[in-house]
Protein: Kinase
Amino acid sequence: MGKLEQDFLRRIVLRERDKPGGVAPGLIGHTVRFILDQGYHVVLEGILYSRKYGDMIRSLGRSHRGQTTYYYLDVSLEETLRRHQMRPQATEFTMDDMRGWYAPHDVLNVDGEHIIDESSSMERTIEYIAAAAGVPLNRREDDFQPTTR
Structure:
């Protein structure tokens, strides 16, 4: 199973700020498409603003031969700020930065999009997504093999 972190590709690989005209959506789209074409499951994770990443994500869903499921973690600004304080990256940007970036209920509005409420624990959210994707949680990461080639 592939897990792609938007922040890693954008901030580390490209060293790009999340601004209009950036190339991150293209790199993310190509990377996801490549991994899917190899038969792997892919979890694309990140704060993927619909106005910037929505077209790319919807395009991936339309072109993918297999199951595509969309999840949106609907978290209030207050809870976002609280969770940020516990992250290793907490010192990389300020609470005021985060307030400026916050986009409430920024869903894709696609059929079957799952909205996960902030009251769902991380463990329960992982279990929910894994069950919907048909991915067992009791396997080692290196046990996951492509489904087709």
The chain has one domain: 2-143.
